[in-house]
Amino acid sequence: MDTAATLSDQPLIDDEVELVLEWRLEQLERAGFRGDVVVDLAERRDVDLHDALRLVEAGCPPALAARILL
Fold first, then answer.
1. Per-residue pLDDT of the chain (70 residues; tens, 9 = 90+)
2. pLDDT at 14
3. Domain tally, the chain
4. For residue 21, what are the CA distances in angstroms to 8, 27, 43, 50, 64?
5. CB of 47 closer than 8 Å to CB of 25
6. DSSP single-letter state for residue 68
7. What is the 3-state secondary structure (H, E, C) of 4-47?
8. Is 40 in contact with 70 (CB distance < 8 Å)?
9. Residue 53 in contact with residue 30, Cβ under 8 Å?
10. What is the model's pLDDT at position 61?
11. Sign (positive/negative) of CA torsion 19, 25, 48, 37?
């Protein structure tokens, strides 16, 4: 494996991770999640974004959905 090629790929990976995080934040805010919990949910890879959105769509208040998921 070429070390130079591997190192040059790192910024691309970091950018992609940042874009995914921003997208998750936007989706959660649109669903009504507020405050620090938005960041907590967005950053946690063990929390399924779709589960969060489904709970809110089913009528669960975002604060309760966050407690369930976290």
1. 455 555 555 677 788 889 999 999 999 999 999 999 999 999 998 999 999 999 999 999 999 999 999 9
2. 82
3. 1
4. 22, 10, 7, 14, 22
5. no
6. H
7. HHHHHHHHHHHHHHHHHHHHHHHHHHHCCCCCHHHHHHHHCCCC
8. yes
9. no
10. 97
11. positive
User: Which structural domain, as residue segments, surrounds residue 15?
Assistant: 3-69
What's the token pair of residue 69?
């998921």
> What are the structure tokens assigned to 36, written together?
């620090």
Predicted pLDDT at 13: 72
Q: Tokens 């989706």 identify what position?
A: 27
What is the predicted pLDDT for the residue at 7?
56
Task: Tell me the one-letter amino acid at 3.
Answer: T
And the tokens for 46? Answer: 């063990």
The alpha carbon dihedral of 47, 48, 53, 59 has a sign of negative
Distance (Å, whole) CA 25 – CA 31: 10
